[in-house]
Amino acid sequence: MPLSASQRRYLRSSAHPLKPVILLGARGITDSVLAELGRALDHHELVKVRLAGADRAERSAQVDALLTASGAELVQQIGHVAALYRRNPDAPRLALPR
């Protein structure tokens, strides 16, 4: 289910003080990075990822690959940092506005 504008705004404000949990290195997106992203999303629901791409197109491709592999939604991307959200169906941590 896509996020509404008010939900996206709420998540952006919640993500602002967070530090990146996932750091992409020179190897890019690997199976271990995807596994760690899945664990982080299950535990926190909202995480920041620091991207490694030099140009905008490469970073955009990395975000698309992360979203596809994890089932998360993009909250915001500024430069080399992207905020991702995936609701934990078993134990939701964030109460989103309607």
Structure, explained:
This protein has 98 residues and is an alpha+beta fold. The chain is built from three helices and four strands, in the order αβαβαββ. The protein has helices spanning 5-15, 31-44, 56-70, and strands at 22-23, 46-50, 73-78, 81-85. It has a four-stranded mixed sheet with strand order 1-2-4-3. The model has no long low-confidence stretch (mean pLDDT 94).
Keywords:
Translation Initiation Factor IF3; alpha+beta; 98 residues; 41% helix; 4-stranded mixed beta sheet; 3 helices
List the helices and strands and how they pair.
Blueprint: H1 5-15, E1 22-23, H2 31-44, E2 46-50, H3 56-70, E3 73-78, E4 81-85
Parallel strand pairs: 1-2
Antiparallel strand pairs: 2-4, 3-4
* Helix/strand order: HEHEHEE
* Oligomeric organization of the protein chains: single chain
Count the beta strands: 4
CATH-assigned fold name: Translation Initiation Factor IF3
**Class, according to the CATH hierarchy?**
Alpha Beta
| Global geometry | globular
The CATH architecture can be given as 2-Layer Sandwich
Provide a count of the helices: 3
CATH superfamily: YhbY-like
Beta-strand content: 15-25%
Structural class: alpha+beta
Characterize this entry briefly.
The chain is of the alpha+beta class. The chain has helices at residues 5-15, 31-44, 56-70; strands spanning 22-23, 46-50, 73-78, 81-85.
